[in-house]
Amino acid sequence: MKTITGTMDASGLKVALVVSRFNDLFTRNLVEGAKDCLVQTGASEDAIDVVWVPGSFELPNAAKELAESGRYQALIGLGVVIEGATDHASIITHTVAQKLMDLSLQYRMPIIDGVVGAKTMEQAMERCGAKQGNRGWSCALVAIEMASLTRRLQDRS
To answer: Catalytic site residue 94?
Structure first.
């Protein structure tokens, strides 16, 4: 039996962060968390691009353009959607997650969903760098491991 795993080494990895400008009080923290993780695991700051879009709903559109460019080994979509009085937040988070996964499968590369769904501003802050860690950091770890694993699996084909 052979076991195949990814690594946590971001050396040589080219990554784009696609980030929602809406709720940028929070998304800027997500960007910093992701960049810190990538650099601490070996990525060059020059190998990290940050693309800002108006809101989380626009993340898949920009991710598609970036995936088609062939310049990246991983993409990370970052946004914060805070629940209101309607189902709008739930619809946005579910739709974006599905579209990012569809793109990931279509382009055979990791496209990580880093959209934080929160019930309150306090909960959003906790998930963007306070009590419960930083979702940007954890998404960067997933991107690094999946980029490595994807490369290994494709090399076996």
So the answer is: no
| Residue boundaries of the structural domains of the chain | 15-152
Classify 42 in phi/psi space as left (phi over 0), alpha (psi -120 to 50) or beta. Answer: left
Fold of 15-152: Rossmann fold (3.40.50)
Selecting among 11, 65, 71, 88, the annotated active-site residue is 88
Q: pTM, whole model, 2 decimals?
A: 0.96
- Reading the chain (157 residues) residue by residue, the pLDDT tens digits are 999 999 999 999 999 999 999 999 999 999 999 999 999 999 999 999 999 999 999 999 999 999 999 999 999 999 999 998 788 899 999 999 999 999 999 999 999 999 999 999 999 999 998 656 899 999 999 999 999 999 999 998 6
Q: E strand or H helix at 88, and its extent?
A: helix 88-107
- Which residues of the chain form beta strands (DSSP E)? 15-20, 48-53, 74-82, 111-118
